[in-house]
Each structure stands twice: as C-alpha cells, then as structure tokens.
Amino acid sequence: MKVAVIGATHAGVFSAKQIKAEHPDAQIDVFEKNHTVSFLSCGIALWIGDHVSSPDKMFYESPESLTAQGITMHMGTEVTKADLAAKHLVYKDLDSGKEQAADYDKIVITTGSKAIKPNLPGIHSDKVFDSKNWDNANALKKVTPGIKSAIVIGAGYIGAELAEQLSVNDKDVTLIDGLDRVLAKNTSSEFSNVFESAYQEHGVQLALNQMVESFEETANGIKVNTNKGSYEADIAILGIGFLPNTTLFKGQVDMLGNGAIETNEYMETSVPGVFAAGDAATVFYNPTGKYDYIPLATNAVRQGVLVGKNIEKNTVAYQGTQATSAVELYDLAYAATGLTAEAAEKKGLQADSVTIEEDYRPDFMLTTTKVKASLTWEKGTRRIIGAAFLSEHDISQAANVVSLAIENKMTIDQLAMTDFFFQPNFDQPINYVSSVAMAAAAKASEN
Length: 447
Fold this sequence. Notes:
The protein is an alpha/beta fold. It has helices at 10-22, 44-48, 63-68, 134-143, 157-168, 189-201, 297-310, 341-346, 396-407, 412-416, 432-446; strands at residues 2-6, 27-32, 72-75, 77-83, 88-93, 99-103, 106-109, 113-115, 128-129, 149-153, 172-177, 205-208, 212-217, 222-226, 230-233, 235-238, 242-244, 274-276, 283-285, 290-292, 325-329, 332-338, 351-359, 370-378, 384-391. The protein has 3 domains: 2-34 and 76-114 and 243-310, FAD/NAD(P)-binding domain (3-Layer(bba) Sandwich), CATH 3.50.50; 128-238, 3-Layer(bba) Sandwich (FAD/NAD(P)-binding domain), CATH 3.50.50; 325-446, Enolase-like, domain 1, CATH 3.30.390.
C-alpha cells in the first residue's frame, strides 16, 4: 500500500505513525512545506514569556525520528496539484524548484489551518506579527525582549495568553477584540468578567467591541486604527483565529462553507480512499450531535490515530469531541468542555446553566481556595452539554470528568449522584463537580 500524507503537524504526524504501526510494509510519503514537524504552537506565548525550558522540547517528533520509523519525509516540499479521484499528486521542492509527480493508493489530507489575516491596509508591515507557526514564534521571540509595548489583536485563547505573558514581562499591552468581552467564544460573561479584572489589574488596556480597520507605521512603531479609536505600540500581534488550509482541494471533496473537509466516522472523505484529519477537517461535536469546525490539537491527534486504524478498512469509529480546553492567566486556571448556554442557543439548542462558587476543600484545612463552577444542560432531556471551572487551584481535570459525561450522554441528575471520593486534602464531602450538578438538578426541577 502506497500512502501520501499531506502536512505534518499533529494530525499528519499521528496519521503517518499509526499507518506504519498498523501496516509495517506500507510506503508512506509525508509532504511538508516547512522544515519542522509536530510544533506545539500552544507554547508560543509561554516561550515569549520565558516559561519554556528549551524550544527544542516544543517538538515531540522530528523529520529524522519519523524517517527512522520507516516513513519517507519530503521536507521543504509543497503539494501544488492534487487529483484526489485519481490519487495523483504533483509536488515541488521549494529550495530547488524541481517538480515531480506520483500516484498513490490512499491520500491523507492533514494540511492544517491558516491564520485569519484580513486584507486591511498596512497589515503586511514588518511590525505586524503572526502567531501561528515555528517561524512566527522565532520572530516574536527575537523581537519581544527589546520592545516596551505591544498591541494584541484577538482576545481568544491565543491573544489572551500573548497579552498576559507580555504584561507580566513589563510590556505595555493593549488587547483589541471585535466582541464585547475577552474569551467571548470560550466562556460565559461571568468568567470573562474575572479575567477582564485581572487584565486591568496588570495594566492591560482593553479595547473591546472594536473592529480593526487599518495599520500605519509610525516613527517608533505601529498604529492600529479601529472603528472607535487608534492605538500605538512598538509592534502588533495577530491572534484572530484560523481557517482550514484546504484551497487546493476545493471542488473535489465535500466541505463546509469555511473549507473544512467533511468526513465520515472513519475519517474518510466523500472521495473513497481519501482521508482528512485535524484542522483541515470537521469534527463530530457531541454536545450538538452535528459536524462542526473546531481546530484543536487534541482533535487532530485522535483523528490522526483513527486515519491509521481505518486506512485499509473501517475498524474504529470516531467517538466525537467535546472541544475540552483550558488556559491559565495570571495564576487563574480555567478549564471548560462543551457549550455555554449562550453558545448552545446559537447552535439551536434550548439550554440552561447554573454557576456556584465554593471552597474546594473543608474550611478546617489551614488553607483553601474558591472554585467557580458552571454546568450547562439541555432543557427537557436534562442532558449535560457543557461545563466550566475557574480557580487558583488546579481544576483542570474537572473539565475532563464532565467531558466524559457529555460523551456518554449523562444527565445532570446522574452526574449529581456519581461516586467521587472525599478526602480533606483534596475536596469537600460533596465534590464541587457533584455540587454544581446538584445545583443544576435543583434549578431544572424548579422550572
């Protein structure tokens, strides 16, 4: 079996490795236009903030390690043409310019995503930085020690982390977003309010509900003009979001309107023998029971493994995702899974939610810490569709617990009565996950 894997970030790497594990005799050609693989881009802000032990450890594989596993790596090589029905590829060595062509039995599309970069005046200034890949990370790491100020555009996870790390390293930071609160697509307003207060306490200027219209270079840096004002700094950093990098395959496979490639539960596209995974593909989103576009490394890794397991025949079906995620800003740990009530409504679900705040362990302990916990459920069925947790205590695994509950279609009543241990070093007699579920069940019963 001869397989082409196009792209080698998370989905591509795990696809190639799993195909080789399942089919040791397979010929696997991986095409990657960059010279690195498996870059953990979620660590860019941490590296800029000097919280990374070594940038070399931001990669869990290398072209050399994959080659040693029997995978043929075509680095610095771009696939320029693809006839998916015929399984025919044309690819170019970006250093020499030489083009070649090859035919395959199977093709795996793991081309990932591209950063959203609107065509605004001045956006291509060398004082406006991207924050997507290894080259972007190096450029930012080189320039940030010498700056005094920065404008971060986009208050999702990426922009939020960049703004936080720059501010704790004594940079004057302005955080701009088109929505009216930080992390608006990631959490509810009661959690956003906590983070907004933290930003303001650390001197970050919040420019929310503002759309960027243009960039202008100044004598000392860059000016960012929005529909409500202008802001100046040494540099600007884009963290607006991502779109599927799938233009090459348009018209050949079924896609969502944004270009995300649709697959079945075995990761196969509408063209037999062609698979897709990661940021280039859709995910099955368990809270809604529908396919959606949610670019996360965790989704990419699991989908890549599934490609390898199903490359020859349907073997293991995709279990779907809850889009579980987390972030830590100013020592505040936030972890979430599924939908908020507001997001559920936009997805066409009738939902409700409840939020509680309590100490994570008994008050007789010498110290304890408050935990804010929220749970969202579908009205009528009482099926859990989301949760969020916020604390200076490590609450990250609580989101994983509720992620399992969502995947298994548990109700708020079932979660309320699920067995969780009690030990005063760790939690209350009623764990805060149980506690918020009990509050949800009580509220649902009142309505």
